[in-house]
Amino acid sequence: MTAVFLGIPTAPPGVGHLRGDRSFPDAAREALRDGQLRANLGHATSTIRAKRAAVVGELPDWAELREAGRAIKAATMARLDEHLIALEEQVTARGGTVHWARDAIEANAIVTRLVQATGADEVVKVKSMATQEIGLNEALEAAGITAHETDLAELIVQLGDDKPSHILVPAIHKNRAEIREIFLRTMPGADPDLTDDPRQLAMAARTHLRERFLRARVAISGANFAVAETGTLAVVESEGNGRMCLTLPDTLITVMGIEKVVPSWRDLEVYLQLLPRSSTGERMNPYTSLWAGVTPGDGPQEFHLVLLDNGRTAVLADEVGREALHCIRCSACLNVCPVYERTGGHAYGSVYPGPIGAILSPQLTGVEDNASLPYASSLCGACYDVCPVAIDIPSILVHLRAEHVEAQTRTTPEAVAFRALSKAMSSPRLWRLAQRAAGLGRFLARGKTTLPNALPPPVSTWTRTRDLPTPPAKTFTQQWAEEHRS
Amino acid sequence: MSSREEILGRIRTALGERGPVSPVTRGYRTVDVRPAEVLLDVLVDRLEDYKATVVRCGPDEVAATVATALAAVQGDVVVAPGVPSAWRPEGSVEDDGRPAVDLAGYGATLTGVSAAVAETGTLVLDGSPLCGRRALSLLPDCLVCVVEAAQVVGSVPEGLAVLDPLAPLTMISGPSATSDIELQRVEGVHGPRALIVVLVA
Ligand code: SF4
Q1: Residue A261 resides in a domain
Q2: Which of A137, A253, A417, A470 has the largest count of CB atoms under 10 Å?
Q3: Last residue of some domain: A308, A325, A340?
Q4: pTM (2 decimals)?
Q5: How far is residue B43's CA from residue A376's CA, in Å, rounded to a whole number?
Q6: For residue A44, which residues of chain B lie inside 8 Å, CB to CB?
């Protein structure tokens, strides 16, 4: 059963950042030519892979935690409506206001209206994938409201007028020297003697944002988890920018995808162990903030929670694909992916890059709007192995490829070739003829082990991305016949 | 139809016929059976790994220990209202409920904690008088937390079990830090750049 068939809408086009303007192979080809980008990514991902492996290896019960993490998410999705209703009830009972947003357009309108009601013309933001997904900053800007990103990597992206390329470290594609250059160019009053020492760069960001935090009246955040039975929200972070936003302003607006709910308080004991070790490779991240509604005399006195669909219910409708909603956005699958490591995140065209993006973006938008993403993988399975909630990403990729192929009405050259191959392989006589014809390939290869990728179209669409071994001088059957002739 | 009804309706359509929900198996460790002394050592090890400073002292030496630890810190020391007078260093002032942003003027903060998790080197502050409001442990550049040995538990599950889910909770594992530049950890961004833990045993 597909969402299309059931009439459940996917994320609307024209708003937010789930669709690229080019196909993955086209964007990737360009990224692969950028040697600096590849060096930056290779350095950063190998650092984090080693750290993750060390702290995950430290827990003897990692497998059990991972299984519990998977099972809680599966159980949550099976009763998602009930948990959301409970969450709404609890948040409301503790002085918060809950809003429901069908899609990006509605969520942006709700948040804009809430900010306008406070009279503020600027907001501070905690890094949040959901608000990036819906293009909230652009929507606020159109309404004359300035959004200040406060996470260091988000700030680098915002100041550099760039796009995020990683779900945890959006500026992973920039190295320290490039970051220094961005700061010097865009931060008013930046110290001209600023070096590229990461500590100095972090201090520059502290100075730049300090005054903004202290004057902010409205903050916008995402949420890592929301506990249905207690109405408790959780934001997991490192720098303290999250705490600044969640504590100092009068009004807090949290935008959360509906899949972030967990049923019980106890469930956090699983995710607060799985998430930090998988994401930054730490035993625990420096700061986790948990709050339920409004606390008199402590923190924002007005709290709004916006529950966002934007295609998530369409993902839920696919029994195989719905596992993508279990993602806790740790980014471990990006960091181990050989494709991501080489192309970087921009090539995926969506705010969700890497293996999780390859299964989530096409489902949120409908597979035809991101048709090349399910192919952006070698199916090596490394993503599945590291995923702390055991999402079987390779199987979902194959499932989405099948869905995409089924949706094709036009016959592709590839389909024609495979049909011919299937015919030849089912007839010994045709197969021998075909093998003899393949011997011609040796002539094209001129002694190399693989065929040149300069074959004419339509064959080139296949050979451009694959190394085709040069056919052997004799086929196995020919050789067998010769050796056993007597 | 309201957005709420529509989204709930979509979920019900997407789920279709409902079978029973598969039970969740919690096969992971929920208690840490190591002796208390070992847990204290683990806590210290983790905190130091995060570049926090840990000093141990006896129950009667807290104020003096705090004073020594803060000797090099510039500015006044503000304490959470529920901090026992025996812990307060001389000259410290109590949080008087001034607007939160004005707390930025202090040099250091002294609070207690509501629990500490050894395995992850985590201190939890719960907004109670002993821990103070959230801005108090955030704005001054140096945070001193007094942890009593009896408050230390081994694992994350044991830690969460003693907390109130309705309280404004802050879990603190080291000074503020970032991994945003080349995925290397650097301590000290927006939150306190120094974390001093006084372990009372
Ligand atoms: S799919 Fe798994 S590994 Fe990838 S970001 Fe989500 S939770 Fe992490």
Answers
A1: yes
A2: A253
A3: A308
A4: 0.90
A5: 43
A6: 182-183
